Amino acid sequence: MDDPQRFEDLVAPVEDLTAAPLTVQCFVPEEARDALPEFAALIDLWLERRGSAGVPDWNDVDFTDFRSWHAYILLSKFEGAEPDPRFRLAGEKVAEVLQFETQGRRISDLAPQFYELQFRDHFHKIREHGLIGLTSGKLPAKGRGHVTLRILELPFRDGGSAVERLLHAQAKETA
């Protein structure tokens, strides 16, 4: 990147500080399917793969398991004690809706105010209790406030007992 201004634009927060907060909810796995019918296929897969464990391991799923959802998925990983996942991979429909770079960035990089206001606690609950999350509402990003989101958050272990990964899935009808 030769243009330092362009690099600054890429890593600057995208949040619109005047936007209303999103709605964040957590569900125990047994109630998530009925509460979130548009995500039933993903929740069924998650429930099946967890077996007797509270949360499935990332190694218990395969990329092909998410057939028809690939474009609508965003993957993230928790690094350290802070419940601030770093985004790793975004499907094309997610990128099209968001219209800002997510790869390699954390929630607090993209939206520091909203991270402190609601996402720190939300992701803490998901991570600590193996809950299934839902984020919905108008995207609080500069120039994107007209976009309605509905994003499922499924926790996964990564070889150990703690939740280390999240699969975020955007509802197909909002894409």
β-strand amount: 15-25%
By DSSP, the count of extended strands is 6
Name the CATH class. Alpha Beta
* CATH topology-level fold name: Beta-Lactamase
Helix content: 25-40%
User: Average pLDDT across residues?
Assistant: 90
Largest sheet: 6 strands, antiparallel
Number of domains: 1
Strands of the widest sheet, in order across it, are 1-4-5-6-2-3
Task: Provide the succession of SSEs.
Answer: HEHHEEHHHEEE
Shape: globular
Name of the CATH superfamily = PAS domain
In CATH, the architecture is: 2-Layer Sandwich
Please give the alpha-carbon distance between the first and last residues: 31 Å
Poorly predicted runs of 5 or more residues? 5-10
Topology of this protein?
Layout: H1 4-11, E1 23-27, H2 29-35, H3 40-50, E2 73-77, E3 86-90, H4 92-98, H5 107-110, H6 112-129, E4 132-138, E5 148-157, E6 163-170
Antiparallel strand pairs: 1-4, 2-3, 2-6, 4-5, 5-6
Helix pairs in contact: 2-3
